[in-house]
Specification:
This protein is an alpha+beta fold. It is built from 23 helices and 22 strands. Bound molecules: adenosine-5'-diphosphate and magnesium ion.
């Protein structure tokens, strides 16, 4: 739940002061431990003690820097999950101590330095993770802390959770809009950048719908809420982001598997390195040189720590998702980022996705009734539908709708509406609905979507409505082709004439019209089976009666601002501002992120195996190995952070 997520964030960065400061308390503590241990190590160089006192003195910096690792290793052994990196660090450093004691060299520097570098690496990594989390929590700043309610002429701050649907709230300049609603008084400009990544302010006036999470910049707005807090846009977004990190991608599965197999493999190799060569040498009649092989085996263990890989991959995904959400593209999990990068076919729904879904009534034909009467029947019958057509008809009617006049409403997806208005049966929909009802209808030759009407079982003419394509739809299709998408397809429940003209205007490769929602699923399944190899198919819709297709496609992309809640639920990716151009952008973001993941995997593994080989051959010592490891980690993490920078893709 969202509250839980909020608390978790609060724990991570426990107060505002700390959120603003460079390091968390935990990181500061670690930095102090590192400095103290390093200072002690240097100081000990100048203290001329030998034997047991010397050993005891050197234990002090060792414990200062490594006590938590030793505890973790101990806990791992107790829980029978031995082979983790703490265990590797513990036995390698204890081994280094043991060797120094055995050789009576008194050189304990190595063991301590190894711990020291390891902790420096850990600190660096936690700093980097914290930084990218801060980017996500910047997004979290959309969470409103209160809502203003007017009581006896005074404003009272209440918890947004306690505001009932239909209440009137007041949002002052500079405040966040806490709940979704409709503006009933006031004009203002809104900053929606936290939601959509769009930096241009938007104008808002009386009558407009307004979504929570925007910032009111100039005027005072009175808003009648249309949703509870839990159902409002802000809550939905927070929920999405909360869950995004729990869905693992295949690259992350790879890491999980790797993390299971790798440590034991390394431990057994180290054991073999310590035992086999001395035994073989003894058998061949040579001196065993076992101290040297023991040292190599310990170095091998220290070198093996795969921190760079284990850290940088989830971090890259985290950064990719964070960067995308700043641009108004919400990605529900790292697995979708991976799938998105392989998309070759993009299938669109027409209404509300490529077109605005805001229809204008352009004509009424063949009606025995007055135009106004027909519109009244249509608007009333449509009063409960969330389809864009219904909204337009209600707007064209323009009068208050008295829902009590309407009964027996039945919405037939992809066809239309049946209802009783003042006890008279009314049907409003396409030719399929008329055929289903067995009513003779008159075809229309005007371009546009045709809503046939039947009143009291008799044909009552048709309303011609027309939709316009979104200004950037054509460009969006072009950009997709340029980004390597090989096929674009448009599916629609609308008539062939309208569909074909829109498809031609936009340059879509294939178009299928007159589809019922179930036919859309079938079409998408057919397209899915034509896919070859790794190529993936994305479906983009507004979720109004296409939620099943959204979940059936390899990846479902929903229009978030206009789309229904069902769409946001069913989709894997949500575009906050309904802008089709964002699809190509999302694909580019995912490609960049996945590219970084692979670079890191290859780079980290190559350096790691090279170091292990050098150590086994005796060509590198512990210092070199540690430096290589920290270096790789720093580079991998810096590379991962690049995934956040996606604004100019
Ligand atoms: P699209 O695939 O373009 O999003 P839909 O599947 O939502 O279209 O709808 C297909 C057709 O069904 C519409 O063009 C319209 O003719 C008819 N229709 C669907 N819902 C309604 C409704 N609520 N009122 C009238 N007609 C509707
Ligand atoms: Mg639709």
């Amino acid at each position: 739940d969202i509250a839980g997520w909020h608390i978790r964030l609060e724990n991570d960065v426990s107060d505002t002061e700390e959120r603003e400061s460079i390091m968390t308390r935990k990181q500061k503590k670690m930095l102090i431990r590192i400095l103290v241990a390093a200072a002690l190590l240097i100081a000990l160089h100048f203290i001329p003690v030998a034997g047991i006192p010397r050993f005891v003195l050197y234990l002090v910096p060792y414990f200062v820097i490594g006590y938590d690792i030793l505890l973790k290793a101990g806990r791992g052994i107790r829980n029978r999950q031995i082979f983790d990196e703490s265990f590797l660090m513990a036995i390698a450093t204890i081994g280094a101590f043991a060797l120094a004691i055995y050789e009576k060299s008194g050189d304990y520097n190595e063991a301590i330095a190894v711990m020291l570098f390891y902790q420096i690496g850990e600190l660096f990594q936690s700093y980097a993770v914290g930084k990218s989390r801060k980017n996500i929590s910047a997004l979290m700043d959309i969470r409103p802390d209160y809502a203003n309610i007017e009581v006896d002429g005074k404003l009272e701050k209440v918890d947004p959770d306690e505001v009932a649907v239909g209440s009137v709230i007041v949002v002052q300049p500079g405040e966040k809009v806490p709940l979704d609603g409709v503006i009933i008084d006031g004009t203002s400009t809104l900053n929606t950048s936290a939601l959509t990544g769009e930096s241009l302010p938007r104008d808002a006036k009386t009558g407009d719908e307004i979504i929570s999470g925007c910032i009111n910049m100039t005027g005072v707005l009175k808003i009648r809420t249309t949703k509870e807090f839990g159902e409002s846009t802000v809550s939905k977004i927070l929920e999405l982001v909360e869950n995004s990190s729990s869905r693992k991608s295949r690259s992350e599965d790879f890491i999980a598997k790797f993390a299971r197999i790798y440590p034991p493999a390394v431990c057994y190799s180290a054991l073999a390195l310590a035992v086999l060569p001395p035994v073989v040498r003894l058998v061949m009649g040579l001196t065993s040189e076992w101290e040297q092989w023991m040292y190599r085996a310990l170095t091998f263990l220290v070198t093996s720590c795969p921190c760079a890989l284990v850290v940088s991959i989830p971090l890259s995904f985290f950064a990719g998702i964070g960067g995308a959400s700043k641009e108004g593209v919400l990605i529900k999990g790292s697995n979708y980022l991976e799938t998105l990068s392989q998309v070759k076919t993009v299938v669109f729904d027409k209404t509300g996705t490529l077109t605005k879904g805001v229809f204008e009534v352009s004509a009424v034909h063949h009606s025995p009734l007055e135009q106004e009467k027909l519109l009244e029947y249509a608007a009333l019958a449509e009063c409960a539908s969330s389809h864009p057509i219904s909204k337009s008809l209600q707007k064209a009617y323009g009068k208050e709708i008295d829902r009590s006049r309407v009964t027996d409403i039945e919405e037939i997806s992809g066809r239309g509406i049946l209802a009783k208005v003042d006890g008279v049966s009314v049907a409003a929909g396409n030719h399929k609905l008329m055929e289903q009802l067995g009513i003779d209808f008159i075809d229309c030759h005007s371009p546009g979507t045709i809503i046939h009407m039947a009143v009291d079982g008799k044909y009552a003419g048709h309303i011609v409505i027309s939709d316009v394509v979104k200004p950037n739809s054509k460009k969006a299709i072009e950009q997709l082709h340029r980004a390597g998408v090989t096929k674009t397809v448009m599916l629609t429940g609308d008539a062939k004439k309208v569909a074909d003209s829109v498809a031609k205007e936009l340059g879509v490769d294939e178009v299928y019209s007159d589809l019922l929602p179930a036919d859309k699923v079938e079409k998408v399944e057919a397209l899915l089976s034509q896919q070859s190899g790794k190529a993936k198919l994305a479906f983009v819709g507004d979720g109004i009666n296409d939620a099943p297709v959204l979940s059936r496609a390899d990846i479902g992309i929903a229009m978030g601002a206009m789309g229904s809640d069902a769409a946001i639920e069913a989709a894997d990716i949500v575009l906050m501002d309904d802008e089709p151009l964002q699809i190509a952008k999302a694909i580019k973001i995912s490609r960049k992120c996945i590219g970084i993941v692979y670079q890191n995997i290859v780079f980290a593994l190559m350096v790691k195996f090279a170091c292990l080989a050098l150590v086994a051959l005796g060509a590198a010592n512990m210092w070199a190995a540690i430096f290589a490891d920290v270096g790789v980690m720093v580079l991998a993490v810096l590379n991962a952070i690049r995934a956040l920078r996606v604004h100019n893709l």
